Amino acid sequence: MTLKIVSKSEFGSWMTKQRKSTEARLEECLPPATELPTVLHRAMRYAVLGGGKRVRPLLAFAAAEIAHADIERATWVGIAVELIHAYSLVHDDLPCMDDDVLRRGMPTCHVKYGEAMALLVGDALQSLAFGVLSERCVAEDAATQLEMVSLLAQASGSYGMAGGQAIDLSAVGLRLNAVDLEQMHSRKTGAMIRCAVALGARCSQQLSLTELTLLDDYARIIGLAFQVIDDVLDEEAPTSILGKTAGKDAKQGKPTYVSALGLSGARTLAENLLDQGLAILECFDESANNLRRLATYVVKRTY
Q1: Is residue 2 domain-resident?
Q2: What is the radius of gyration, based on Cα positions, of the chain?
């Protein structure tokens, strides 16, 4: 199979375009800051707009390309996943969780608006995410759209992101091996990344069950690689680059891939995971090129 190679400049242009589209739709669906309750709506917009890598919407866009799906549908499923992600960051930063004061280079939501308002921001963003996914036409039929709502609920609940955070809190001060870390992060970080790919791929009905399973395998592996690199960057990169407090995990006694494998071992694991993810995509044609580039971006990123 001869594949068209997507250049770095082409991929960069694609990312910029999709990020702008995501930002515009987030702006559109968030309540205006002038509407009551104005403080809550200002805080919601503060927590969501104007920053972030938007990796999850990008993955939804790229998966939808493989399915030859309508770009409008992919935009809205990406928005739903990004709203869940934004809510999780607001709650993660609270003093009762990770207790951080910096996010995306700015004061965290609870620092700017208070803990109670930050809690409400997370609640409201979660509700808004499900509203977006259920109210917009994002699938060929109602049954598929209902399945997509269910996938988002599973990925964000106790068997997914929230459950992973609970395990993370319980593991502070413990030394976990790589297997236990994978169990934790497959939920905390990986579940929403898998969800982004799964939702994007279901925006049309052109993919077979086998192809959907392959994409889920890819997303599971890339979700793990994302967390491995997060752990590496928390150890190596300065706060000014990360946009959040560097070295926080080590100071709080959290188990990481760096604490389990060392910096070199963690980077080697990430590279191996990248190879695995790319190998899974070999059976797809050039429509998967942006998924290939995203996998490389996840592992090679610097923030």
Answers
A1: no
A2: 18
